Amino acid sequence: MTGACEGDNQSVSLDVLTKKMEEFAKERNWERFHSPRNLLLALVGEIGELSEIFQWKGEVPRGLPDWEEEEKVHLGEELSDVLLYLVRLSDICGVDLGKAALRKVELNALKYPVTLSKNSSNNASHSV
């Protein structure tokens, strides 16, 4: 799936995205609009747009083998919108998103130990 800049195979840190989003808002004098509430509502709107992509497709196999490249590019754009608003929201709220996510994974490991999850089909929700 395309979506990164041509020839760019590096992974991108949350810190880099945070700085880029801060600069982007500053350059446009949009900081005054970036309250937690406004960013959350924008994030919800983007999640709605992401949901629309899957709305009538039914279950989709991993890797999206039947999707056209144009659909995959569009998906990448909508996923990026969600990520960028989430990164901006966490920055404005003073939450270190990377650390919070790692902590949540650790908490989930305690809540859903491997020994109880291995052969259980009852645990279908797979909470995050």
TrEMBL record:
It comes from the Eukaryota. The lineage of its organism: Eukaryota, Viridiplantae, Streptophyta, Embryophyta, Tracheophyta. Hydrolyzes deoxynucleoside triphosphates (dNTPs) to the corresponding nucleoside monophosphates. Has a strong preference for dCTP and its analogs including 5-iodo-dCTP and 5-methyl-dCTP for which it may even have a higher efficiency. May protect DNA or RNA against the incorporation of these genotoxic nucleotide analogs through their catabolism. Keywords: Cytoplasm, Hydrolase, Magnesium, Metal-binding. This is dCTP pyrophosphatase 1. It holds the Pfam family MazG. GO terms for cellular component: cytosol. The keyword Nucleotide-binding does not apply. Residues 35-101 form the NTP pyrophosphohydrolase MazG-like domain. It catalyses: dCTP + H2O = dCMP + diphosphate + H(+). Its EC number is 3.6.1.12. SUPFAM superfamilies: all-alpha NTP pyrophosphatases. InterPro entries: DCTPP, MazG-like_dom.
